[in-house]
Amino acid sequence: MRTSRLTAIGVAVFLGATVTACGNGVAPASEPSAVATAATAEQPSELTLDTVNWALSTLQEQTGAPLEEIQLKSLMISPGGSATFDALDPAKPTELNQYVAYPDGRRLVHPYDYGGADNYEALTATLFGAHEVSPETLVAAWQDSFDRVQGERSEMSASGVSASREDETGPVQLSIVNGPQRDRQSVYYDANGQFLRTS
């Protein structure tokens, strides 16, 4: 059902239409599509490619930079369309901010105090490019997480998908919390969407 909706609206390709725009190459974030808006009102239980592409587009709008120029410490995109990105400000690369976007149009930016110049090198070791994990991988990992936990699909409730470096400086790792309400587990994947483990 979700797949047919996505086909109908023509989802943008991650490194193509998402970052292709005039001027500095930043794609302006459109308002949430009818699909995303309706899904939010229904409190959706499924993460879609439409939602992920829209979230990444809002990040480009908030930072004023294409994905290839954005360095992330972490990301989290929820099925409902809200997204949180901890990222360096591309215009002021010693400043770390939290960029938050909601499908109702609200945008927030919260500055972080990470300790200044003395901690900058340690901070950069935790970063990864915003383009390093494709939207398709984020969605595929989220969907696969239902097959990695015990329980009836109808009883499962999955969080959004998160990405950060394992143990701060290790490989980029995706995680989704999934399972029945009383027995939820964290499911982990690498940056290519390969299943790693549950815990």
Automatic annotation (TrEMBL):
It comes from the Bacteria. Residues 151-183 are annotated as: Disordered. PROSITE patterns: PROKAR_LIPOPROTEIN. Keywords: Signal. Residues 1-23 form the signal peptide. This is Lipoprotein.
